[in-house]
Protein: Phosphoribosyl-ATP pyrophosphatase
Amino acid sequence: MPGTKQTDWTPLDQLFKTIESRKAAAADESYVAHLYAKGRKKIAQKLGEEAVETALAAVLDDRPDMIAESADLLFHLLVLWADAGLHPSDILAELARREGLSGLEEKARRPS
Ligand SMILES: N=c1c2ncn([C@@H]3O[C@H](COP(=O)(O)OP(=O)(O)OP(=O)(O)O)[C@@H](O)[C@H]3O)c2ncn1[C@@H]1O[C@H](COP(=O)(O)O)[C@@H](O)[C@H]1O
Structure:
């Protein structure tokens, strides 16, 4: 379709591999290893901060900041998955399971 943007997720895949590889790195030589050493709470805290900063950039309609903060957010989400032993394919499988099911329809089906 003309004008349709295609997304190539290969760079995210490569970044996840790099993040996984940092499990063997020293905390003073790698930011990712530093986060692993700090632990799950610190990683979750960073993820929350980046999510709030992304939301703030969106409210301010600041496009460059939205891009920068979204990159920080995605990066920290990948670190969280790696720390938790999740693989991007786990999340993609869940999204595939939901494909075609409207969020409104899913909500309506929930037991009240
Ligand atoms: N994509 C990123 C990336 N995005 C953001 N960041 C870091 O995430 C941090 C963001 O936190 P803040 O802006 O809140 O900075 P801060 O105030 O220093 O953070 P705190 O002291 O509060 O924890 C900064 O240190 C950024 O440099 C990243 N660090 C690394 N990567 C990628 O991860 C790879 C591995 O990194 P290392 O493990 O450091 O080798 C790199 O080659 C990059 O590809």
